[in-house]
Amino acid sequence: MKIFNSLSMRKEEFVPIEAGKVRMYACGPTVYNLIHVGNARPIIVFDVLRRYLEYLGYAVTFVQNFTDVDDRIIKRANEEGSSAKAVSEKYIGEYFTDCRGLGVRAATIHPRATENIGQIVEMVGDLIEKGCAYEAEGDVYYRALRFQDYGKLSHQPLDELQAGARVNVADIKESPMDFALWKAAKPGEPAWDSPWGKGRPGWHIECSVMSSRYLGKTIDIHCGGQDLIFPHHENEIAQSEAANGCKFVNYWMHNGFISVDSRKMSKSLNNFFTVREAAEAYGYDAIRMFILMSHYRSPLNYSSEILIQAKNALERLSTARANLDFFAQNGADGAMTAAERAFAGSLSKYRTRFCEVMDDDLNTADAVSVVFELVREINAAVSPAADPTKALAAACAAVFDELSDVLGLPLKKADEGIDAEIEARVQARQAARKAKNFAEADRIRDELRARGIILEDTPRGVKIVRER
Ligand SMILES: [Zn+2]
Description:
Blueprint: E1 2-5, E2 10-13, E3 21-26, H1 37-55, E4 59-64, H2 71-80, H3 84-102, H4 117-129, E5 133-136, E6 139-142, H5 158-164, E7 179-184, E8 199-201, H6 203-215, E9 219-225, H7 229-244, E10 249-255, E11 258-260, E12 263-264, H8 275-282, H9 284-292, E13 300-301, H10 304-330, H11 338-346, H12 348-359, H13 364-381, H14 390-407, H15 420-434, H16 438-450, E14 453-458, E15 461-466
Parallel strand pairs: 3-4, 3-9, 9-10, 11-13
Antiparallel strand pairs: 1-2, 5-6, 6-7, 7-8, 11-12, 14-15
Helix pairs in contact: 1-9, 2-3, 4-6, 6-7, 8-9, 9-10, 10-13, 10-14, 12-13, 13-14, 15-16
Bound molecules: zinc ion (ZN).
Zinc ion binds next to helix 7.
């Protein structure tokens, strides 16, 4: 598989540190609010990366942290008259609710900053000892310019980074480039004991600590949104490589922004849609489809038109999947015919093409197209006109499921949601038809039609198709 590495700025063949194993880390959310659609992009894209690596046979250990101590969490707790812990607990719960809806699997480990304070204090102390960091009035800062490779991920020359750094006259830092590893406690804030007095960790240090604690000093893949490249990931590299004396990450992967009317969707611009509100309007599965329909590094524009388009695309896949289920249950008995065997065998070309495009830096846009081409062929071969065997329908369903599972597409299966009441109406209609009471049969069909349930009569029985 080839991965575009932000460090080298080119596609590189993926070679894991240890054969058959992948250690990957993704920067998780700061839990003070519901996530928005822009936040959902890395979550979904890197869930697919993990699924695909597993599909290729790798054992993947995936760590994603929760930043559960931060200015914004403390601010929200003060506004709500609650504690930082209560706020972060609440939004960790909300985060998992959205992830379940989006079909995103939980990481192998979801460590929290506040559960790693001892290890954080240790790494900060180590960096001071090595001369890479210094204490000032209870804060601890990293000497960014002391790190030889500072700027290597963001590909910016040091003088440009320095020119961009905000100079604060009252600053106690040696250089405006220096960043906080530890912050002295202010009254009313959550604080922990340290050799520099009571305080709490800065943001960047937690990822360096959790990555090495749970995955080792050098890891295979570190991923996140493009906006994290500088300063967050640049600082993670400086901390980890100075503390551990070895390369921090072999492959850096960053996804592009989601924009609204050509401006980046963000909390600060207040042009965001929460995943929750988008899910209420279009469904969680449409959000997943919308994100996978483009390459993860491309910019992506959010609009109701494209969400509806994604929803319709998913609908076509669901209908095709339900059709396979119908014929797997109601098709002709016996073994596949020779022609069917040849057709089923030919479907492996879709597997091959799917892997080709996914191997090319996780091109989910083309992978979705491959699934659609597969569906077009299957729809023609497994249809009332073709009168397929159950065995053929099952063989087609297996290929279809294999590929759509890698993308994590949440497709409704035929039997799901067909409740007893609808089943009874379908039976009543069958009985009316048998009794040649066609007026009654049509009436029941129209009644169900009005509820979005379409009955298709086939030589193999009645197919129930749900309009969503
Ligand atoms: Zn991070």
